Amino acid sequence: MADRKAQLTIDGLDAPVELPIYSGTTGPDVIDVRGLIDHGYFTYDPGFVSTASCESEITYIDGANGVLLHRGFPIEQLATHSNHTEMSYLLLNGEIPDKEAYETFRNSVSRHTMVHEQIVNFFKGFRRDAHPMAVLCGVAGALSAFYHDNLDITQEHDRQVSAIRLIAKMPTLAAMCYKYNIGQPFAYPRNDLDYAENFLYMMFSNPCEEYEINPVAAKAMDRIFMLHADHEQNASTSTVRLAGSTGANPFACISAGIAALWGPAHGGANEAVLNMLAEIGDESEENIQHFVDRAKDKQDAFRLMGFGHRVYRNFDPRARVMKETCDEVLEELGMGDDPQLKIAKRLEQIALEDDYFIERKLYPNVDFYSGIILRALGIPKNMFTVIFAVARTTGWISHWNEMITNGTRIGRPRQLYKGYTQRDYPDQQ
Ligand code: SDX
Q1: Which reaction does it catalyse (predicted)?
Q2: How many domains is the chain partitioned into structurally?
Q3: Most-buried pick from 1, 152, 223, 275 (CB within 10 A)?
Q4: Which atom belonging to ligand 1 lies closest to the Cα atom of 360?
Q5: Is 230 a domain residue?
Q6: Helix axes 250-261, 235-244, angle to 10 degrees
């Protein structure tokens, strides 16, 4: 229901156009521009800077104040008190589960971790040196060819089964991407282990020796999964929603999300941060300053990766938690003197005191420190974005489910056309 109305005066129209204004539970009000088309106008918002594409109850971000809430709960509280499995339930179903609901959900997720044995054949079609994100896009999409039994997306039960399958199978596929890349046999999931423990087990165990899970590593991994689990209508989630709006099956939609996540401006930034830290190389003051100066130079393509955000004009709250986690993990693993961590911290400090970054409100984002943690856990750089995709699967599928539950029209943006007007085909003799 419209609480208020906006009036838009347009040269050439007899009367102002009335546009309803709606209020959410918090955050900016929105002007409903759907009626503009009746007057012959589109809105123009490349990059969707000021456009609310949907209604949602899942995640709220207050970018000016650095606040992130999932179903109302602050990310800092969730990161401290929850775990990835509980958070997945919360994102998907709206509430923190009681003990019984948690156990039921946990059991369902752990009973769906295995993938169909023929999926191994898909891996074999890829070059071993392919980027694991390329492989993940393919094999995640291929899941739709294996799980036809619960693909009636109009049925809530089928949507839940698909959601659980995706949350459960993504770590398995991700670890398989790694094992295939390094030429080791795939490790089957172990359902007695927690989500993060099982992922580390599938990544690092081999048939020749006992693998002991380091609890520090498992806790850090779970926290990384939690901090990346959802982030409102970001590029990859919007991609999943757009694909889903056509009625496409959820496995195909998630595969589209993985593709969108891969870019260095989005989920690919965690890998790009470590490449950047390696490029910076030495921790001398002049050298770090030199790279900060390059990031400010419009003629230079170099940018501070892991810095800046479309929505946050303040600290990304996830970055604070990530930095604390980074300090704890490296200390506990005896890597407190890590040279790349030192470079990252000094880089952050210099940038935060520099007018260029202050004026543009550019702060470290979730991925400025995540790569340093992942590297300390022994995870290679090319797997960082894959891990982001595993974590974000929960958010993607929760948004997809919300959209289908609420009913949606196909997503179909329009354009400001700047090409030729009609012309005749040339008379070629
Ligand atoms: C994620 O949307 C989400 O929620 C994403 C995410 C999630 O959880 O889903 O949070 C995850 O994608 C994090 C972002 C990871 N990307 C990076 O770390 C890459 C580096 N950052 C950027 O390229 C950039 O800041 C973006 C892509 C994150 C945001 O892009 P915007 O909103 O389009 O901002 P912009 O590029 O228009 O920048 C505004 C100004 C520009 O300067 P002016 O032209 O105004 O002079 O700030 C400058 C930019 O050049 N700028 C930077 C910079 N980021 C922006 N300058 C130097 N280094 C940077 N990193």
Answers
A1: oxaloacetate + acetyl-CoA + H2O = citrate + CoA + H(+)
A2: 2
A3: 223
A4: 47
A5: yes
A6: 150
Classify residue 414: in a domain, yes or no: no
66 lies in a domain? no
Containing 243, the helix (H) or strand (E) segment is: helix 235-244
* Residue 197 Cα to ligand 1 middle (Å): 33
Q: Is the domain of 94 the same as that of 27?
A: no
Tens-digit pLDDT profile for residues 88-135: 999 999 999 999 999 999 999 999 999 999 999 999 999 999 999 999
- The residues carrying an active-site annotation are 309, 367
pLDDT tens track for 173-206: 999 999 999 999 999 999 999 999 999 999 999 9
- Considering the domain architecture, whether residues 20 and 124 belong to the same structural domain is answered as no
The tens digit of pLDDT for each residue in 372-429 reads: 999 999 999 999 999 999 999 999 999 999 999 999 899 999 999 999 999 999 998 7
Whether residues 111 and 41 fall in one domain: no
**For residues 319 and 66, is the Cβ–Cβ distance under 8 A?**
no
pTM confidence score: 0.96
Domain that holds residue 376: 78-408
Ligand 1: residue whose CA is nearest its atom 47: 360
Quick check: is 260 in a domain? yes
Query: Could you tell me the distance, in angstroms and rounded to a whole number, from the CA of residue 363 to the centre of ligand 1?
Result: 10
| Environment class of 125 (CB within 10 Å of its CB; exposed 0-12, middle 13-18, buried 19+) | exposed
In this structure, is the dihedral angle defined by the CA atoms of residues 323, 398, 384 and 368, taken in order, positive or negative? negative
